[in-house]
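haha ok so turns out i had the wrong file open the whole time. this is the CORRECT one, sorry everyone. sequence first:
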Amino acid sequence: MKQLLLVFIGGGTGSMARYLLSKVWNSSGSGIPYGTFTANILGSLIIGLVLGWAIKNNALSSNTTLLLATGFCGGFTTFSTFAYEHHNFIKSGDFMQFAIYAIASFTIGILAIFGGMWLGKTL
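then structure:
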């Protein structure tokens, strides 16, 4: 039960942070939704940092990892919104924005995971 509460608290906090980021950086006009993009990239970096730190130092308890990685990062990042935004690009015929957003999100997101893991292990 304690683990579920930790994931709930972390997920709620991450979701609120993503919502605020999206309110500030996502424009209602066409173009890249920078709030979602930033949340997904930062979330990838953070989960890399947390898991890299946990692997190297064995200092984070499983409860802390649940709170930060599963809860916060799970709530902060969003695949469903990412997919919906891509749906909108296709629907509007904006294939260039679709491609740029998809390629940048996957490439930079994966690099952020590797960078976070590396940074977490070197700290």
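The helical segments are 2-25, 34-57, 62-76, 79-92, 95-122.
again sry for the mixup
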